[in-house]
């Protein structure tokens, strides 16, 4: 968030009043709910994909346009964040809150349009609107918590994302079996509307705690100069490509595994609950492994979890059992879960503090293209070779994430 937290301290470590401490906690809690809604959005798609294909009579490639259009919205919002962060400035709570509420309102509009089950082109375009809002909230929220340099808070923040993604398939699976399947998005709209109200109350109506981001020397850097510095920082691009592949794998598993279980393993309509198990594992891993993350450190933890998840993916590939696959998928989520917040924490460790929020905006812009690129590629390949091609593709992508992580610097270079 470009808004401030009373729990962040600078080198001067100013004293905080009780009111400021409470404000900081409320701000963090509101971000947790925001990430719950983002997770709800991402977890809804998988169980609904087979029904969307049935209703609109589209193949794997065409239905995958949902991921592409959503990605375009995410990239647009993330790039805008690079400029808006500096225009608003930390400490200007009211302006930042208005922008965050605008992003939240984008989601409200998108979900309302999706609930109407409009013709397929309009239905798909609505995902651009939701993607735009989600990108802005995600970049600002992660940048805000990364500045805290608190492993626990980052883990909890993204655990709420996993919680939302875990709960939503329970609902969307039920709606996918009914005539009015698109009414699922009315629930999404209600949750997003509550998000808007919370931001108004917490960030607009409450007072400012006065935190300022540390600056290089004393001079403030403008957006263009910061972007130039980001473009020259090798670590930013390596983390961005790592996130690109990681998010692509995360969304592909959550989005296409249900279809794989139905068509390859012979699962029934309730196969959507496999997605719940996956995102449940994702949520649990982001909380349960916090202690191990601290003992291992970001670098070794991500490497270990990536190797374990890769091994479990081979189980899904070669064990022809619905129950066995469902359990393995849940454990894949468990070990993949901590990797994103660990990467965000690593940004706070190795990147200059005066470009953290902007850098995370750029990382999201590049990284979250994976949320469209790999699921779309999966759909296109499945159209030609069948959905059984999902497993070897995921194995290859997981290997690439491990290699990329090994290339990322482990110490700050500023």
UniProtKB/TrEMBL annotation:
| Cellular component, GO annotation | endomembrane system; membrane
Cross-referenced PROSITE patterns: MFS (PS50850)
**GO molecular function, a single term:** transmembrane transporter activity
The keyword Transcription belongs to this UniProt entry's keyword annotation: no
- List residues traversing the bilayer: 21-40, 60-83, 95-114, 120-148, 155-171, 183-206, 235-261, 273-292, 301-320, 326-343, 355-377, 389-408
Q: Which UniProt keywords apply?
A: Membrane, Transmembrane, Transmembrane helix, Transport
Question: How is this protein positioned relative to the membrane?
Answer: Multi-pass membrane protein
Q: What is its main location?
A: membrane
What InterPro entries does its record include?
A: MFS, MFS_dom, MFS_trans_sf, MFS_Transporter
Major facilitator superfamily (MFS) profile domain span: 27-412
- Superkingdom field: Eukaryota
Q: Where in the cell is it found?
A: Endomembrane system
Similarity comment text for this entry: Belongs to the major facilitator superfamily.
**What is the official name of this protein in its record?**
Major facilitator superfamily (MFS) profile domain-containing protein
Q: Which organism is it from?
A: Amanita thiersii Skay4041
Lineage of the species this protein comes from: Eukaryota, Fungi, Dikarya, Basidiomycota, Agaricomycotina
């Amino acid at each position: 968030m470009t808004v401030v937290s009373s729990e962040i301290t600078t080198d001067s470590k100013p004293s905080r009043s009780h009111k400021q401490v409470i404000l900081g906690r409320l701000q963090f809690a509101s971000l947790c709910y925001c990430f719950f809604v983002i997770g709800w959005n991402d977890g809804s798609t998988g169980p609904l994909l087979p029904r969307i294909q049935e209703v609109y009579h589209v193949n794997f490639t065409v239905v995958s346009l949902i991921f592409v259009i959503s990605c375009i919205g995410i990239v647009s919002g993330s790039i805008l964040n690079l400029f808006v962060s500096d225009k608003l400035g930390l400490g200007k709570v009211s302006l930042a809150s208005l922008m965050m509420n605008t992003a939240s309102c984008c989601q409200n509009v998108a979900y309302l349009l999706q609930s109407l089950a409009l013709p397929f082109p309009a239905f798909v375009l609505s995902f651009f609107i939701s993607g735009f809002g989600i990108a802005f909230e995600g970049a600002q929220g992660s940048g805000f918590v990364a500045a805290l340099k608190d492993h626990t808070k980052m883990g909890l923040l993204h655990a709420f994302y996993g919680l939302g993604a875990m709960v939503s398939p329970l609902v969307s699976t039920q709606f996918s079996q009914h005539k009015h399947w698109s009414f699922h998005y009315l629930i999404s709209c209600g949750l997003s509307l509550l998000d808007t109200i919370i931001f108004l109350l917490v960030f607009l109506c409450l007072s400012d705690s006065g935190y300022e981001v540390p600056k290089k020397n004393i001079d403030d850097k403008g957006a263009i100069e910061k972007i130039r510095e980001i473009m020259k920082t090798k670590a930013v691009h390596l983390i961005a490509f790592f996130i690109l592949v990681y998010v692509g794998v995360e969304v592909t598993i959550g989005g296409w595994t249900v279809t794989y279980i139905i068509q390859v393993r012979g699962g029934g309509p309730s196969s959507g609950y496999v997605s719940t198990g996956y995102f449940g594992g994702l949520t649990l891993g982001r909380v349960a492994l916090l202690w191990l993350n601290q003992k291992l450190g970001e670098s070794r933890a991500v490497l270990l979890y990536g190797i374990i998840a890769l091994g479990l993916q081979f189980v899904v590939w070669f064990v022809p059992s619905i129950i066995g696959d469902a359990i393995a998928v849940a454990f894949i989520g468990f070990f993949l879960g901590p990797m994103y917040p660990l990467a965000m924490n690593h940004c706070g460790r190795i990147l200059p503090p005066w470009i953290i929020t902007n850098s995370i905006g750029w990382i999201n812009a590049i990284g979250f293209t994976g949320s469209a690129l790999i699921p779309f590629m999966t759909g296109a390949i499945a159209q030609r070779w069948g959905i059984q091609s999902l497993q070897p593709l995921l194995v290859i992508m997981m290997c690439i994430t491990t290699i990329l992580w090994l290339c990322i610097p482990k110490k700050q270079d500023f």
